[in-house]
Amino acid sequence: MPLSTPTSPARHSGYETLEDAAEAYGTFHGRVVPDVDERTRGSSKLWRSFGLATLFLVLASYMLLQSYYEPSNHQEKEITSATSPSAAPEPIQKSQNEFTTLSHKHEERDGLSKLESKFLKRVDTTEIRNFHGAYASVPHPAGSHQDYKTALFTAEQFESFGIKAEIVEYYSLLSLPVHRKLSILSPPEAVRQLNLTEESVPGDACTSNEDALPPYLGYSDSGNVTAAVVYVNYARPVDFQWLKDNNITLEGKIALVRYGGNFRGLKVMLAEQHGMAGVLIYSDPLDDGYGQGPVYPEGPWRPEGSFQRGSVQYNSISGGDPLTPGFPSLPGEPYLSKEECKTIPHIPTLPLSYGQARYILESLGGKKAPDVWQGALDLENGGYFVGDDEATVLNLDVAMDNSIGPIWDVVGTIEGTEEPDQMVIIGNHRDAWVCGAIDPSSGSAVMLEIARGLGELLKGGWKPR
Predict the structure, then answer these.
(1) For residues 200 and 198, what is the distance between their CA atoms, to the nearest angstrom?
(2) 232 near 255, Cβ under 8 Å?
(3) Rounded to whole angstroms, how far apart are CA atoms 325 and 45?
(4) How many CB atoms lie within 10 A of CB 206?
(5) Which of 76, 254, 317, 444 is most buried (most C-beta within 10 Å)?
(6) 181 in helix, strand or coil?
């Protein structure tokens, strides 16, 4: 996705981001990527886990348990009587005995400390809704201009809460689709090109936003593969073992896999380890669709034209930037080459809707899949088959742009007074391939409300240890 401006204004949000705020928190360098050497280094025991947008609030988790603020009755009334969610707390005069050490035995009847109760009473769902609207109004993929705007917004909110903020730019491997095509070549009665465009939902503008990334799997390799397809259920070790025990050839085949049972990256990793040439992952309605209940927009479950996007990085080996495990993703650091990287696929992959996966499943023959492999689709061929007769042949054609680009971590810091070297990190990623109302924006909105609550305690005189 090119760096772009939004196609529609932010909705459901009372917040605006100043374009010149970059001067205060960092500079948007998204149009120029500095030279980064890709050179090999030995493996490291320390794996760096990065968030595309991470809040670092430096405080000990036990600070709220061990730091205790007890205002006078008059001050308590000032704090709890505020009615406006955005109203600043009244200034509080500290007395000599205002802060005391709190142990677990000093609890109120509800099991919470008084400080914790004060914090929770300030949580405001209206604020969370406004934060959520600011994040989830438009698509904001990692490295895009919209992603940078959400970084500025986050930093501005931290500063408004009284929390020191900065934006740190890193250069990691980003993944965007260039070309995607999937066709059934045989049997003759099943020949067709499958539709890889996600259906829009009336009333949901995000599903028709032209800046939304199309369905794809992050870190997929490029490739053009023509091969027979094998149904592999959830692509767990036990599923591959069943196929091997039944003398079903996997090498050189395309795997058709359903979501569930394990992480999508593990599905691809296991398929690659078994010599398979490509992977298709679809959401079966038994697991995520009408087999569970009403589908969106009538209910929460996936409709037949929806695709589950996501990364297929091999996170069980290493998370974070695939090219800099254990190192910051900065120019001058040693980067692995993509060919040497062991944590991303070296075969092409695509997600499918169950509306499109149906055409492949209905064309499969050979052995009948075990009962526990059967899904909820009512198929014309009488159920789910493995495809070991090799009658169903697909052409999977994927071109990816897996290149190094900028991302921005937002760092908000609250310094401790007695143990500043002890840290608790509270964070959430910001980027979203579409609008990201659930993942990640629900978490980002709650994260900001936590920061706002801590900021109000700070303004009232509280300090972490």
Answers:
(1) 6
(2) yes
(3) 9
(4) 19
(5) 254
(6) strand
**Residue 382 CA to its chain's centroid (Å):** 37
Residue with tokens 């908000």: 412
Query: How are beta strands 254-258 and 278-282 bridged, if at all?
Result: parallel
| CA 283 vs CA 287, 288, 336: distances in Å | 7, 6, 33
List the helix and strand counts (H, then E) for the chain.
Answer: 11, 11
Average pLDDT over residues 260-265: 97
- pLDDT tens-digit readout, 178-208: 999 999 999 999 999 999 999 999 999 999 9
The fold of 173-404 is: Glucose Oxidase; domain 1 (3.50.30)
Strand, helix or coil for residue 224: strand
Distance between CA atoms of residues 127 and 455, nearest Å = 14
Nearest to 391 by CA among 373, 367, 371: 367
Domain residue limits, the chain: 173-404
CA distance 237 to 367: 19
Determine the Cα–Cα distance for residues 287 and 377; give it in Å rounded to an integer: 11
Phi, psi dihedral angles at 135 (to 5 degrees)? -80, -40
In the structure encoding, which two tokens stand for residue 310, read together?
A: 């996501």
pTM of the predicted model over 0.85: no
Q: List, as one string, the DSSP characters of 66-135.
A: HEEE---HHHHHHHHT---TTPPPPP-PPPTTSEEE--TTS--TTS--HHHHHHHHT--HHHHHHHHHHH
Question: pLDDT-based confidence at 35, cuts 50/70/90?
Answer: low
pLDDT digits (tens, 9 = 90+) for 305-336: 999 999 999 999 999 999 999 899 998 889 99
* CB contact burial 87-98 (16+ within 10 A = b; e otherwise): eeeeebeeeeeb
Residue 382, both tokens: 């009488």
Backbone angles phi, psi at 402, to 5 degrees: -100, 95
Report the pLDDT value the prediction gives residue 63, as an integer from 0 to 100: 39
Q: State the CB neighbour count (10 A cutoff) for residue 404.
A: 21
